[in-house]
Design goal:
- The chain is built from 16 helices and five strands.
- The protein has 303 residues and is an alpha+beta fold.
- Among the domains are: 86 residues; 114 residues, Hypothetical protein, domain 2 (Endonuclease III, domain 1), CATH 1.10.340.
- The protein has a five-stranded antiparallel beta sheet.
- Helix 12 crosses helix 13.
- The longest helix is centred in the middle third of the chain and has 15 residues.
- GO terms for molecular function: alkylated DNA binding; DNA-3-methyladenine glycosylase activity; DNA-7-methylguanine glycosylase activity.
- This is 3-methyladenine DNA glycosylase/8-oxoguanine DNA glycosylase.
Length: 303
């Protein structure tokens, strides 16, 4: 495509392109993401400025990446990490039949690393203590209303997620209109004030990276784990405090619901790759029993 910077990269491992990138997508209407046939489009921030990235894989396994914008070269340089080159699944040992079966069926699944905290931080905070439907609606509203049009020939409707400066300029009533309550708003604004420092978490990685994120008020264990899983592909960052995951892991692996402590006990043999085990459980197709109504969304715009 005209004006694009291009890179071709052929991984030396089996690659499930859509599977590796899936955690970065915040719902089917995510303005920073589009699937166009076999290609995936992403927009985002880089240290050099905004960028649009298009990825598709040829029949011979080669990934063709095209990028536009001030951050184009940075995005192309980061393609291998984004697609899981730095991941090390070889040492993973399954301790449960369901996990072993999922690992066997999904040899191309790897944990990718966007190497950018900010773009995954905002939607992670938006997902605190609300349903996915609510969080994704808020993310769409913020991107569409306050994000910039993407560089290059991106599909119609895409936006670059709002920058820290753009987030700090959002009026209170616009947060309310986007359905974001005061607690999540304060957490996002606190992160925006120190966003440049938080990017260092990618270099620290692991627990040290998560500890840096948790220094910001409003960023707890769950949110830090959600960020770590995407920003640096942390294989051990379990989302402790999640409304669903302990129950799903419990039913899938031991046949009963668990709380956080019970889940961590069951996952202990998988350390330091506990999150990889959770990912296999989530993608295995297992469905936990349902005994009651689902949690109803709460529309903060009506408060």
């Amino acid at each position: 495509m005209a004006g694009a910077s291009t890179r071709e990269w052929r991984p030396d491992f089996r690659l499930d392109l859509a599977g590796v990138l899936a955690p970065l997508r915040r719902g089917p209407g995510d303005p920073s993401w589009r699937a166009d046939g076999a290609a995936v489009w992403r927009t985002g921030s880089t240290p050099d400025g905004p960028a649009t990235l298009r990825l598709h894989r040829r029949g011979d396994g080669t990934v063709v990446a095209q990028a536009w914008g001030a951050g184009a070269q940075w995005s192309l340089d980061g393609v291998p990490a984004l697609l899981g080159e730095g991941d090390r699944p070889e040492g993973f040992v399954a301790h449960h039949p369901l996990v072993a079966d999922a690992a066997r069926r999904m040899p191309g699944l790897r944990l990718g690393a966007s190497m950018r905290v900010w773009d995954v931080l905002v939607p992670s905070v938006l997902e605190q203590k609300v349903t996915g439907t609510e969080a994704r609606r808020s993310w769409r509203e913020l991107c569409r209303r306050f994000g910039d049009p993407p560089p290059g020939p991106a599909p119609e409707g895409m936006r670059v997620p709002p920058s820290p400066a753009q987030v700090r300029a959002i009026p209170d009533w616009e947060w309310h209109r986007a359905g974001v309550d005061l607690a999540r708003r304060r957490a996002i604004l606190a992160c925006a004030a120190v966003a440049h420092r938080l990017e260092a978490a990618c270099e620290l990685g692991g627990e040290r990276g998560r500890e840096l994120l948790r220094k910001v008020p409003g960023i707890g264990v769950w949110t830090a784990a959600e960020i770590a899983q995407r920003a640096w592909g942390d294989p051990d960052a379990v989302s402790v405090g999640d409304f669903h995951i302990p129950t799903v892991v419990g039913w899938a692996l031991v046949g009963r619901p668990l709380d956080d402590a019970g889940m961590l006990g069951v996952l202990a043999p998988y350390a330091p790759q506990r999150q990889r085990a959770v990912r296999y459980v989530e993608l295995s197709g297992f469905k936990r029993p349902r005994f009651g109504p689902r949690y109803s969304p709460k529309d903060y715009r009506a408060i």
